[in-house]
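assembly run, all chains below
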Amino acid sequence: GDSVTQMEGPVTLSEEAFLTINCTYTATGYPSLFWYVQYPGEGLQLLLKATKADDKGSNKGFEATYRKETTSFHLEKGSVQVSDSAVYFCALIGMDSSYKLIFGSGTRLLVRP
Amino acid sequence: DAGITQSPRHKVTETGTPVTLRCHQTENHRYMYWYRQDPGHGLRLIHYSYGVKDTDKGEVSDGYSVSRSKTEDFLLTLESATSSQTSVYFCAIRPTGTSSNEQFFGPGTRLTVL
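ok done. output:
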């Protein structure tokens, strides 16, 4: 079945460092890909999305490119801030009619001043 | 803000008791979902609904039932709660007409089963 694998955390960075969180997926056909963010004590917020190969999703300085050839959707940000500290989830919606989200296990990011 | 509320936000209950969690939406979206969040597992689908009285199981549906008698409400019931059902439960909606199928989440319900 469809699945998502993302790098284990926690990832600890200093403010203004470059961020990469790796995400790879297994799915049939052409899934839609997402990054969600969960700030402490809150629910999940959609961060960015991509629906077809080579699409680049971007929001709040974060970017991710849908790479069909490597089945990847890595999250990047050029300069992280303390306020980016959160848990980041990679997810996909496959081709079945339920439109259910399949999540990775999440990566905790801690940004230090 | 997708207009999703969940109640209660926190609940502590004892093993063997029934529990019902409510998800309410204000925008008449057809698809609604219940997920549970556990450390190391991300979020996993329990049940979903694609219309009034139309529901189906997700990957972790054992021990849970759902009902949707009107568009705006999706109820999740634990018939006899167990400690393994201690978790954070999130409701989500898929906006009608979206081409990319994104979902938007409610604030969550933290359930502790003693």
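The first strand of chain B starts at residue 4 and ends at 7.

The mean pLDDT of chain B is 93.

not gonna interpret more than that til we talk
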